[in-house]
Amino acid sequence: MISLALLGKKISHSKSAEIYEELLAEEIDYKIYDCALPSDIPSLDYFFKNHKGLSITSPYKKFFLDKVEISGVDLKAINCIKKSGNTYLATNTDYLAIEEIIEGFSRRYKELFFVILGDGVMSEITQKLLQIKNIRFVVFSRKQDPDFKNLDIPAKIGTINAQVIIVNSCSRGFQFCGALSKNYLFWDYNYSFLPHSERLQSKVLSYMDGLSMLKLQAKYAINFWDL
Fold it and tell me: For 29, what's the count of Cα atoms within 13 Å in the CB-facing half-sphere?
């Protein structure tokens, strides 16, 4: 039986195990390492003595950077590790999943404009990708913007001659309560987050939660692990 692991903090809600079983069409041994402190995190040697592949979620996407070789774009954040011989290789399937979804938006709309909520790791990855693709964006941050959760986004960005896509890159501890427009798309990187899905559906043109991104991350991870 294939054994996989997930490292993170406050991740008891994770649906990763069932997604991997769906994609692989078989039962797997899936272990969640819910570590409150960095000191609680096992070594890579421990993980790969017991598991074939390791996924990493917030807040530990930078934790093993000095222990791995990067495969693909170096984003200074990783979410997927495998062992190859005596070397640990790492990549970021967040980037690949976000890229595929943005390419889908680009096929549907002539021009895009992104409003990114948050300035953490997932925000940084999104910014990097948008810069590469030469897509315009603005970032709002809890550190820089007063009353961040209640932002009036239409007033902040004005009239934009493009499809506006709001990206919530913040963790599940954040709930956006500000003003939106019926012309916007709202893309939440969290999945099954009822405070957003129940409130925002009627306030925007379309609401998309993070489940589709999670499934794409898993697809790319399976390929990276050679499963």
Answer: 7
Q: Cα separation of 129 and 124, whole Å?
A: 9
Please state, in angstroms and rounded to a whole number, the distance separating the CA atoms of residues 115 and 165.
6
Helix axes 16-24, 211-224, angle to 10 degrees: 60
- Residue-range domains of the chain with CATH: 3-93+214-224 (3.40.50.10860), 95-210 (3.40.50.720)
Instruction: Please state, in angstroms and rounded to a whole number, the distance separating the CA atoms of residues 171 and 151.
Output: 17
The three-class DSSP label of residue 14 is coil
Instruction: Decide: 129 and 98 in contact? Cβ < 8 Å.
Output: yes
The SS3 of residue 178 is coil
Count of alpha carbons within 13 angstroms of residue 192, beta-carbon side: 6
Q: Closest Cα to residue 165, out of 220, 126, 214? A: 126
Cβ contacts of 61 within 8 Å, gap of 6 or more = 77, 78, 79, 92, 121
Helix (H) or strand (E) holding 60: none
Give φ, ψ of 121 to 5 degrees: -60, -45
Q: Which residue has the tokens 């807040």?
A: 59
- CA separation for the pair 161, 156 (Å, rounded): 15
Cβ(218)–Cβ(20) below 8 Å: yes
213/225 Cα distance (integer angstroms):
18
User: Looking at the whole model, is its pTM more than 0.70?
Assistant: yes
Token pair in block for residue 216: 């794409």
* Tens-digit pLDDT profile for residues 144-171: 888 899 999 999 999 999 999 999 999 8
